Amino acid sequence: MNDEKIVKASAESLATAARNASKGGLPPVHLWNPEFCGDLDMRIARDGTWFYLGTPIGRPELVRLFSTILRRDGDDYFLVTPVEKVGITVDDAPFVGQDFEVTGSGADQTLTFETNVGDTVAAGPDTPIRVTRDPKSGEPSPYVLVRSNLEALIDRKSFYRLVDIGAHHDGWFGLWSGGVFFPIIPSNELP
Questions:
Q1: What does the pLDDT look like over 80-117, one tens digit per residue?
Q2: Which of 11, 53, 92, 130 has CA atoms 20 to 30 A from the CA of 63?
Q3: pLDDT tens for each residue of 133-175
Q4: How big is the CA angle at 152 (ends 138 and 159), to the nearest 5 degrees?
Q5: What b-and-e string marks burial along 139-152, b requiring 16 or more CB atoms within 10 Å of the CB?
């Protein structure tokens, strides 16, 4: 069997395993420790697009299935089933926070994000928001923890909306959610 057939068979078996495992919710990938089977030519771009063999995966259902068996170990990402573990490439974060809802206000506010793969997560003590800044441009990159060491990059339109509802607290400008204040930038750095 040539390499292309092996890769195709591996991708199909991963999709089947994900489909079977996700029928009752998210599969327990943190409990699965199969042998590493090598790297798969699969990549998640910064905008949340999943690629297989350089081609975008056009079926949202398949992307959702793969997202349910995604795991991060250290700085590496893997698709994991009870019998296979294959490495994939993630350009930034594996998910994109593409919208959010606000309930409450001020310190009692909760921000609930929806990702490009259909996950929802309310930011709070166990699912924090963090913002990094590019050292050269100062451009912010905001993230929210979705599950088990997997983050969503909050898209630009959502980040602008978040800034509109931000608040100052203890010398920082940031966001309240789930009873926690998440700093974005020191207040004295704002114009």
A1: 999 999 999 999 999 999 999 999 999 999 999 999 99
A2: 130
A3: 999 988 899 999 999 899 999 999 999 999 999 999 999 999 9
A4: 50
A5: eeebbbbbbeebbb
> 65: which 2 tokens?
């299935």
Question: How far, in Å, CA of 111 to CA of 143, rounded?
Answer: 13
Phi, psi (degrees; rounded to nearest 5) at 174: -170, -155
SS (H, E, C) the chain: CCHHHHHHHHHHHHHHHHHHHHHHCCCCHHHCCCCEEEEEEEEECCCCCEEECCEECCCHHHHHHHHHCEEEECCEEEEECCCCEEEEEECCCCEEEEEEEEECCHHHCEEEEEECCCCEEECECCECEEEEECCCCCCEEEEEEEECCEEEEECHHHHHHHHHCCEEECCEEEEEECCEEEEEEEHHHCC
Extract the tokens encoding 163: 């800034």
User: Considering Cα of 92, then 177, then 117, then 10, what sign does the dihedral take?
Assistant: positive
